[in-house]
Design brief:
Length: about 450
C-alpha cells in the first residue's frame, strides 16, 4: 500500500513531463490507411520502442507487410502476467476544414469552468489511452525499480484501417505474448464520473454492393418506366432489410444471437443513463432500433444492418433527368454473440440476389470482418480491476457493453486463449474519428493512476 501511494504521488508530480511525451507522440502523423504516411507510422513505432526501452522494457520493432508492430517485455516481477494491447495509428483527419486547429499540433484547452482537455487527432483514440498504461509502468519503475506484475506490450499500427498484419503476428509470437490476462485501453467510461469495464463488443461484417442494369446512363423521359432503374432496385432491397419493428429480415441473420442473461440485463437496466440522455446528446429523442429493447440492448447486444453510404445517378448541382446505369451501397453489420461473419455475408448476398429483377446484375465487394466478443466476468482479474477503478474514481465501476468493434480482442481470446479486460477513459463526446478530437486531462491523469492501481490489484494473490 505504501508503494502504491508513492507511485500515485509520483504520477501527479510527473504529469507535465507525461504530457510532453504524449504531445511528442501526437505530433506524428500516423494515419495508417493512407500510404503517404507510412514513414510517419514507422516513426511512431520507433518512438514507442525508444520510450519503452527508457523504462527498462526489452522493446523491439517488428516489420510486417503493413506497418511495424512494437513489442515490449518487462518480465522481472513474479505474479500473474499481463499482455497490454494498444494501437499507435490514427484515423484520417479529413474534412480538415472542420478542425478548429492543426490536428497534429496538440495543445491543452482550458474551458471557462477550469476543466481542461488535450486536443489532437489520436488524443483519445488511442495514443492518450495507450500512454495512460505506459506512464503507470514508468511510475512503478521509478518508485520501486520494478513493475508489480510481469508485463508484455504489443502496439500495432493498422487497427484503424482494418489491416491484416496483426493476426498472423499474434499466431507467430503466441508463446512470447501469451499471458494470464489481456489488457486493452481503447474503450470509454459510462460517464465522466463513472469508470467502466467493457465486457461485450460487437463484431463487424462490411459489404459493398453494386447494382447494374442498362449499358449506359439513359434519358429518363425516353426510357423512363420501360428501363430497369438501379436506384429503385437498390432502394427496394435496402428498405427490405428491416421490418416495421426494426428487425433485420435476412433469413438466418439471427442465428447465434442469444438473449442477455437476466443478471446482465438487470445491471444494464440499473445504469444511471437512459435513452433520453443517450440520444439527446446527439440531437435525437426516439430509439429507432428493435422495438421492445432498451437503448443499451439495442447498441450493445443486438445485431444491426446499417447502410453507411449509398450513391447512384446524378448528385451534382442542379438537375439532370437520367436513369443511371448503376447504383451502389456500403452496408455494415454489427454482430453479437456467436453470429458468424461469413454466414452473415453469404445470407446477405443470397437476400440481394433473390430480389434482383430481370436485366439487373449485382457485384459484391468484401470489406473487413470480425466476430463479437463477450467475457464472463467471473475471472478474478475482472473483480480486481473493478475494485481498483472504484478506488480511483470514487464511483463504483460498472460492467458495460459497447457497440464499437476492436477486432484484436477476439484474436487474443481465440489465438492466445486469454480473457481480456477492456477498460478505458474515453468519453462519448471525445469526437473520436471526427474533427476536433479531444481527451480529457482528467481521463489522462486518473487513467494513469487507475492503471497503477490495477497492476497492484492484479499482483495481489490473496
Ligand atoms: N476504439 C475504437 C472502438 C471503440 C470506441 C470501442 C469506443 C468502444 C468504445 C476502435 O479504434 C474503432 O474505431 N474500431 C472500428 C473497427 C475497425 C475494424 C475499423 C469500429 O468500431 O468501427
Ligand atoms: Zn478507432
Amino acid at each position: 500500500m505504501a508503494d502504491l501511494d508513492a507511485v500515485l504521488a509520483r504520477i501527479d508530480a510527473d504529469l507535465d513531463q507525461a504530457l510532453e511525451r504524449l504531445f511528442a507522440l501526437l505530433r506524428i502523423k500516423s494515419i495508417s490507411t493512407d500510404p503517404a504516411y507510412a514513414a510517419d507510422c514507422r516513426e511512431c513505432a520507433e518512438w514507442h520502442v525508444e520510450d519503452l526501452q527508457s523504462i527498462g522494457f526489452v522493446a523491439t520493432l517488428h516489420d510486417t507487410p503493413g506497418h511495424p508492430i512494437v513489442t515490449g517485455h518487462a518480465r522481472a516481477a513474479a505474479g500473474p502476467s499481463a499482455l497490454f494491447y494498444g494501437h499507435y495509428d490514427v484515423q484520417p483527419v479529413d474534412p480538415l476544414e472542420l478542425w478548429d486547429h492543426d490536428p497534429f499540433a496538440p495543445f491543452i484547452e482550458t474551458r471557462p469552468d477550469g476543466s481542461r482537455c488535450i486536443r489532437a487527432r489520436g488524443a483519445s483514440d488511442d495514443k492518450g489511452q495507450v500512454m495512460t498504461f505506459v506512464e503507470a509502468c514508468r511510475a512503478w519503475k521509478a518508485v520501486t525499480g520494478a513493475l508489480p506484475i510481469p508485463v508484455s506490450i504489443v502496439i500495432e499500427g493498422e487497427e484503424e484501417s482494418g489491416g491484416a498484419s496483426l493476426p498472423p503476428f499474434l499466431e507467430a509470437h503466441a508463446a512470447e505474448l501469451k499471458a494470464d490476462i489481456g489488457l486493452i485501453c481503447d474503450t470509454g467510461m459510462l460517464d465522466p464520473e463513472t469508470p467502466a469495464i467493457t465486457t461485450m463488443l460487437r463484431g463487424l461484417c462490411g459489404e459493398e454492393i453494386v447494382i447494374e442494369a442498362a449499358d449506359r446512363d439513359l434519358h429518363s423521359g425516353l426510357y423512363g418506366s420501360a428501363a430497369a432503374n438501379p436506384n429503385h432496385v437498390l432502394a427496394r432491397i435496402l428498405a427490405d432489410l428491416h421490418d416495421e419493428n426494426g428487425r433485420v429480415t435476412i433469413p438466418g441473420f439471427y442465428d447465434g444471437v442469444r438473449e442477455l442473461s437476466p443478471e446482465l440485463k438487470a445491471t444494464w437496466d440499473d445504469l444511471p443513463v437512459d435513452a433520453a440522455d443517450f440520444l439527446g446528446a446527439v440531437g435525437l429523442s426516439v430509439p429507432a432500433g428493435e422495438q421492445g429493447r432498451s437503448i443499451f440492448e439495442q447498441v450493445w447486444s443486438r445485431p444491426t444492418a446499417e447502410v453507411n453510404g449509398m450513391g447512384g445517378g446524378y448528385q451534382g448541382e442542379g438537375f439532370k433527368t437520367v436513369i443511371p446505369a448503376k447504383a451502389s451501397a456500403k452496408v455494415s453489420f454489427r454482430l453479437v454473440f456467436d453470429q458468424d461473419p461469413k454466414a452473415v455475408r453469404e445470407a446477405f448476398r443470397a437476400f440481394v440476389r433473390a430480389r434482383l429483377p430481370a436485366d439487373c446484375k449485382v457485384r459484391f465487394i468484401e470489406h473487413g470482418s470480425g466476430r463479437a466478443i463477450g467475457f464472463p466476468v467471473d475471472a478474478p482479474a475482472f473483480g480486481r480491476t473493478r475494485d481498483a477503478l472504484t478506488a480511483e474514481w470514487g464511483n463504483a465501476a460498472v460492467f458495460i457493453g459497447s457497440g464499437g468493434s476492436i477486432p484484436v480482442a477476439h484474436e487474443l481470446e481465440q489465438k492466445l486463449g486469454m480473457d481480456v479486460v477492456l477498460t478505458g477513459f474515453g468519453l462519448e463526446d471525445d469526437r473520436i474519428h471526427s474533427p476536433n478530437e479531444k481527451y480529457e486531462f482528467e481521463s489522462f491523469r486518473r487513467g494513469i493512476r487507475s492503471w497503477a492501481r490495477i497492476m497492484a490489484a492484479l499482483a495481489d494473490q490473496r
